[in-house]
Amino acid sequence: MTPALLFSAGLLALVALAIPIVLHIVRRTETLTVDFAALRWLEARPKPRRSLRLEELALLAVRLILLAALALWLARPVLGDVQDSRRVVAITPGLDAATIASAGQDGDRLVWLAPGFPAVGGPAPAAPAKVISLIRQLDAELAPETPVTVLVPAVLDGVDAERPRLSRRLDWRVGPPAPAGATPDRRPPPALSVRHAPEAEDGVRYFRAAATAWAAAETAPRLDAAPTDRPLEREATHLVWLAPGPMPAPVVAWIRDGGTALVALQARAPVEGETRVVWRDAVGEPLAVAGRLGRGRVIRLTRPLQPSAIPALVEPEFPDALALMLEPSAPPARVAATDHAPLTDAVPYEQPPLDLRPWLALIIALILGGERWMATGRARAVAP
Amino acid sequence: MSPLELPPDLRSRLRSLSIVPRRAALLASAGQHDSRNRGGGLEFAQYRAYERGDDLRSIDWKLYARSDRFFVRDAERESPVAVWILLDASASMAQADLARPDWTRFDAARRLAAGLIEIALSQGDRFGLIVEGADGPMVLTPRAGGRHRDRLRLAMAPLKAAGVARWTRDVALFGERIGAHDLILILTDGFDECCIEVTERLAASGRDVCLIQILTGDERDFPFDRGYRFHDPETGAALVADGPALRQDFLARFAAARAALSARLDARGVRHVAHFIDESADRPIRTLFHTTGRS
């Protein structure tokens, strides 16, 4: 424990200690008036020597202590290295009861691995979406020497692409393997809306071919191809815009509202922020770049929509490439917990010191109460 | 506690006291006070058996004719002594002690007056009251009896000591109302020069004057242990000074002033005594009337 002052200049307020001292000296010279009929036998001698005599020393002492405490409060006292050195056992909600019961020994601090790290004993919180993020937070909030045990399920979801890097070596315990759940279904193929200028109707066929390839056998392709003057349908999510010149305002608004649009080279679509390449040809030349517009995306072809410029249009891989462009798949986020044990090469975090001001404020309030009680008590005739 | 309510212990001590006129020796012997009035008043009191030495004229001859015994008509005898109590009600009388701020000099004077009235009542004397305040004197003519005592107490109860008493203005009235052989008891602090002069004039006119100087405990002890602003309620003068520095000098000068006053009063034949307000009210009466005994 190392006490320190965050704002030492606050101690300048100690100058105020002179105030009660001066008050106690000055008040002494205030004299009470008494009736005294035998005044003529009192000799008006020159004023007696002024001696610096302080009265009511106890009250003065309390006032000095009060002001000193206030000055200390202004100086923001803190206490460093105040940490609970007990072992912390963090348990992921959703583990079975037997694992939880065997987790900690006496003297351990059991917490749920959930936002706020509530203590185990209350109701179990919902399973967190980002377990690794919570483990990083736990590592940052604990002193470097505190031992930490983390209980995680056999399979972690929502992890990053990298193993977490922490400042300490965790006791990484993996719970029993959960029963294998059903693998999620494949996503349905996107429904395409194509809007084209009259002279660009030729390009529609590549997308019709792609939509036909996406559709299951014996079903009609989900394609809505029309000239540009026809408004978009309400449930449309993916638009292919094949018209030169600026896009009309309703379409731009639709994109800003969350739509995804693939625009031809001649079309001018606004894009916010940076673009990145989302489609390359066999030699790595960019074929399409994607950018953000509002909540939606704009994918712009970098070449004319012709097989001579883009040979991939007529390749069998085009439907898959188009689907990946329009609906990029989420990065993999599921990992076996045994393979995701944290690394230990991060720099330890500086722990914030304990702020003593709330406690000091309580003490100040108590001293103030005592001072008022002494100053206005029955024993005193006049309160200054 | 009201100054007019006498505590039981004080009341019992007062019972053994009496008010003794100075010129008692000059009076003939009858009753508690020796009287020069031979015979009684006109009020019939009782019959009693004849004793040797009774005046033959006081024998009821008609009763003798009926009963063949000598009976004497005893008459209510009017007391020859009237006790006047002169109460000083100037502002200086309102002073109280530091230790007991609710008990003023005037309270002590009223208690003393109440005690004197009790004694006068018990010895059958007439008693009257003059309160000398700023608005002129309040005079209650001497009479005897319990009802008159109650009247005096009723008159004293609401009084407040305030203002400056003008004794010299009223001295003519005193000479008019107070009989030449009455006993005058002056209750004052004695700080007013006019008051002492009036006392001297009353004594010079041949009246029997007693003065009880009522002093506070502060004037005797001077317990002021810090700086005070001393304020004279009558002149309005004030003095700011440190108590301990003043004490020695004040006590010496005040004792000298009291000695001078004592010598002055002695020279005029005024019996006098000092009474401190934190003392019991029977002490000055005992000192005044019982040290020398009856002559």
Structure overview:
The complex is a heterodimer of chains A (384) and B (295). Chain A has helices spanning 18-29, 57-74, 97-101, 131-141, 204-214, 249-256, 318-326, 357-375, and strands spanning 2-5, 32-35, 77-80, 88-91, 109-112, 148-152, 155-157, 171-174, 192-196, 223-227, 238-242, 245-246, 260-263, 267-268, 272-280, 286-293, 296-301, 334-336, 354-355. Chain A is an alpha/beta fold and 384 residues long. In chain A, the strands form five sheets. Chain A has a seven-stranded mixed sheet. The longest helix of chain A has 19 residues, at 357-375. Chain A is elongated, with a radius of gyration of 39 Å. By secondary structure, chain B is α/β, with parallel strands linked by helices. Chain B is built from nine helices and ten strands. Chain B has helices spanning 8-15, 61-67, 105-122, 146-156, 167-177, 193-204, 217-221, 243-268, 282-290, and strands at 44-49, 71-75, 82-88, 126-133, 136-143, 183-188, 208-215, 227-231, 238-242, 271-276. In chain B, the strands form three sheets. Chain B has a six-stranded mixed sheet, sandwiched between helices. In chain B, strands 1-2 form a two-stranded antiparallel sheet. In chain B, strands 8-9 form a two-stranded antiparallel ribbon. The radius of gyration of chain B is 22 Å and the shape is elongated. Strand 2 (32-35) of chain A pairs parallel with strand 8 (227-231) of chain B.
